[in-house]
Design a protein that fits this description.
Elements: H1 15-26, E1 29-30, H2 42-53, H3 66-80, H4 86-89, E2 90-93, H5 96-107, E3 113-118, H6 124-130, E4 134-139, H7 149-155, E5 160-166, H8 178-188, E6 194-198, E7 224-229, H9 230-233, E8 242-246, H10 248-261, H11 267-279, H12 281-285, H13 287-301, E9 317-321, H14 331-342, E10 344-345, E11 347-348, E12 362-366, H15 371-382
Parallel strand pairs: 1-10, 3-4, 3-5, 5-6, 6-7
Antiparallel strand pairs: 2-8, 7-8, 9-12, 11-12
This protein binds 4'-deoxy-4'-aminopyridoxal-5'-phosphate and glutamine.
């Protein structure tokens, strides 16, 4: 018998895989894991087809196809008036998850501390644990999931090496304001602390709000790594293609690790994305309105139900408070109940916490769905 020990003994199968499997098993409406149930733009699918048929099927450059990096540089120039060098500051990765993983591998050493705001995306804490780092979990404050800056100030010490920010925020839909960023800058600017800013929902911001990237602050320019995901932006989560942006010194450290973790992303996907971005700038320009309409349709569907919602400010997630329906159930049991008894599957927000949350039970629904799915979801939830 061989003897091997788990490096993540407390981790089971992720909540996203678990809930999607539950939806399939029960043949239930799946609003749990975040992915669209509608097709990507036909021109993008055609571009992938063409890129593959044209023979772009061998390794891409490790840092990514230059044309795609140039499209990203253009986006940051237009949105944030930021001058990025595609050659030295942008790397295309097979999804944001590996970008997050490699950034932590590159920056955090054993014994270092990393500040993480809970609820937090499930890959952060295991990635920190695998380098022997220590995640310092600071809960966000319900109901608006704002940062308790006093706690952040007290958590920072000489071991703090990184702060992980996620805006727009999964699962709560909260956005960081300019004031949030400025407070963070004041706390870290004279310290050896890197910001890992997970901005995968950068284009999904509602009600006229603006996404504010870490890179838009000159004070953070040389100490931040920004991670993005084409999967969210172009309705192709299964293409697992994302990016990392950082100033050259940090990017060099990142690439040192990434070249051995994956070497490069998928070639025809990158070519297709570059071509589509160049030919269809209207896709990104219309994305906020496109998803705001879906959020509003979902909220209208539950308006007369006993669920309560604070409208999501960004992402494609909406959390609901179910305390008027089943105050006796915790959020995991509530999701189980909804799946088994009502054939609709959500994600328990407690799965994003290291300690059980203090706020009322919340469950997260993904509204990246066709109209008919959202209408059906409203009907089911209103009948409970
Ligand atoms: N960060 C957050 C906050 C996410 O919601 C996701 C989506 N799963 C990711 C990172 C990972 O993105 P990708 O699928 O591109 O790896
Ligand atoms: N980010 C997606 C979510 O929050 C899922 C990603 C995954 O399945 N790992 O639902």
């Amino acid at each position: 018998m061989i003897e091997v020990h788990s490096k993540l003994p407390a981790s089971g199968v992720t909540i996203f895989s678990t809930m999607t499997a539950m939806a399939q098993r029960l043949n239930a409406l799946n609003l749990s894991q975040g992915f669209p149930d509608f097709a990507a733009p036909p021109a993008l699918l055609e571009a992938l087809n063409q890129a593959s048929l044209a023979g772009h099927n061998q390794y891409a450059p490790g840092d990514g196809i230059l044309a795609l990096r140039e499209q990203l540089a253009l986006q940051f120039m237009q949105r944030d008036q930021l001058n990025l060098d595609p050659a030295t500051e942008i790397t295309i990765t097979p999804g944001a998850t590996i970008g997050i993983f490699c950034t932590i591998q590159a920056i955090v050493h054993a014994g270092d501390e990393v500040i993480v705001f809970d609820p937090s995306y499930d890959s952060y804490a295991p990635s920190i644990a695998l380098v022997g780092g220590k995640a310092i979990h600071i809960p966000l404050q319900a109901p608006d999931f704002s940062v308790d800056w006093n706690r952040v100030q007290h958590a920072i010490n000489h071991k703090t090496r990184m702060v992980i920010v996620n805006t727009p925020h999964n699962p709560t839909g909260a956005l960081w304001s300019k004031q949030d960023w400025q407070t963070l800058i004041a706390l870290i600017q004279d310290k050896n602390i890197v910001v890992l800013s997970d901005e995968v929902y950068e284009h999904l911001v509602f009600d006229g709000r603006k996404h504010i990237s870490a890179l838009s602050f000159p004070e953070l320019r040389s100490r931040s790594v920004v991670v993005g995901s084409f999967g969210k932006t172009f309705h192709v989560t299964g293409w697992k293609t994302g990016y990392c942006i950082a100033a050259p010194a940090l990017m060099t450290l990142f690439r040192q690790i990434y070249q051995f973790a994956n070497f490069c992303g998928v070639t025809p996907v990158q070519i297709a994305l570059a071509q589509y971005m160049q030919q269809h700038p209207e896709h990104i320009q219309g994305l906020a309105a496109f998803y705001q309409q879906k959020r509003d349709l979902f909220l209208a569907g539950i308006a007369t139900s006993k669920f309560q919602a604070i409208p999501s400010q960004g992402t494609y997630f909406q959390s609901l408070d179910y305390s008027q329906i089943r105050p006796d159930l915790d959020d995991v049991a509530m999701c189980q109940y909804l799946a088994e008894q009502h054939k609709i599957v959500a994600i328990p927000v407690s799965a994003f916490y290291c300690e059980p949350p203090q706020h009322a039970g919340l469950i997260r629904f993904c509204f990246a769905k066709q109209e008919q799915t959202l209408i059906r979801a409203g009907e089911i939830l209103s009948a409970i």
